[in-house]
Amino acid sequence: MFEEISKILVVDDENVNLELISAVFIDSPNIMVITARDGLEALEVLKEHTPDVIVLDIRMPRMNGIEVLNVLKSDPNTSHIPVVVLSGDEKERKNALKNGANDFIPKPFDAEELKLRVINNLQVKKYQDLIKDINEVLQKEVMKKTKELREALELAKEAEYEMVLKFGMISEFRDEETGQHIRRISYYSRLLAQLAGLPESEQNIIFYASPLHDVGKVGIPDNILRKPGPLTPEEFEIMKLHTIIGGKILTSDTRFITLHAGKIIALQHHEKWDGSGYPKGLKEQEIHPYARIVAVCDVFDAMTSDRVYRPAFTVEQTIDIMKKGKGSHFDPELLELFMENLDSFLKIKETFKD
């Protein structure tokens, strides 16, 4: 899958788990598994190796997984490395996510699920590295070129948008939404930002960042993400974690404007105007304008599209339902702008239909 060798550091105090996880990747020649038997040994390994993903057990002697996480995320040299925690305790998993973990795998673990989750995180890391490298190259080139550089910048921006779309589609492939869904969100969001009076520079930011709103779904188990019926309260609590996971995935240097805006949107697009949303229960102006805009657009597109658990609503049904959420779910001014310009949004929907 990857041309270069990808390194995975597995930290677990049980030898049988180290052997099982190493065996999972024995048929992956481009993946190297490095092991450590506790947190202190892992920190020593990190002095010689820079892994692309760390698989970290929580309960270990000498230095537990949470303590290791705190060290990793406080060090600029390791804070960018995705960490997948292993734990059989739901509270421990949530605590790990709050402390900087990017994903989790329940214990006892399923070998195939573990492999897929690690590879998903490797893909995310590769996209982040690629975007970072492109931005760094462009910053250097700005010093040297004029007309040729401007043309290169335009091409790079188009390439960045395509990469962002592919990045967003990692999760879309798993929950059976389509690439057209995230393209529609992109165009809807830019239009609503324009109608709301945001500067053109911010209209462009939300255009590029909004496709990343659900990237955190890459960390949600398939049996929940693809469930054909209603989620149980416990399953819904896990589903809600996709906002936090998305925020962790998109955490980056604030110089990378698209990723920083994507982080805000991923974290806040399920917050509600009246404070009843998640993950933090923000309300009104506490919610970033980008997230309030994407919330309106995402709900409209989701409701008017087929899902595994229900067929699409008609546009009329969707509008009636969304009107009931004015001032409770949605920013009332943004929803009004959306309704007043519905024909323009429907043209976008037709242009990028599934």
From TrEMBL:
Q: Which domain of life is it from?
A: Bacteria
What the entry lists under PROSITE patterns is as follows:
HD_GYP, RESPONSE_REGULATORY
Q: Which CDD domains match?
A: HDc
Coiled-coil annotation reads: 135-162
Keywords, comma-separated and alphabetical = Coiled coil, Phosphoprotein
SUPFAM superfamilies found in the cross-reference section = CheY-like, HD-domain/PDEase-like
- One Pfam family linked to the record: Response_reg
* Occurrences of domain HD-GYP (ranges): 156-354
Residues annotated as carrying 4-aspartylphosphate in the record are D57
Where does the Response regulatory domain start and stop, copy by copy? 7-122
Q: Which InterPro entries match?
A: CheY-like_superfamily (IPR011006), Cyclic_di-GMP/3'3'-cGAMP_PDE (IPR052020), HD/PDEase_dom (IPR003607), HD_GYP_dom (IPR037522), Sig_transdc_resp-reg_receiver (IPR001789)
Q: Name one GO biological process term.
A: phosphorelay signal transduction system
Q: Which PANTHER family match?
A: CYCLIC DI-GMP PHOSPHODIESTERASE TM_0186, CYCLIC DI-GMP PHOSPHODIESTERASE TM_0186-RELATED
> What protein does this entry describe?
HD domain-containing phosphohydrolase
Q: Which organism is it from?
A: Thermodesulfovibrio autotrophicus
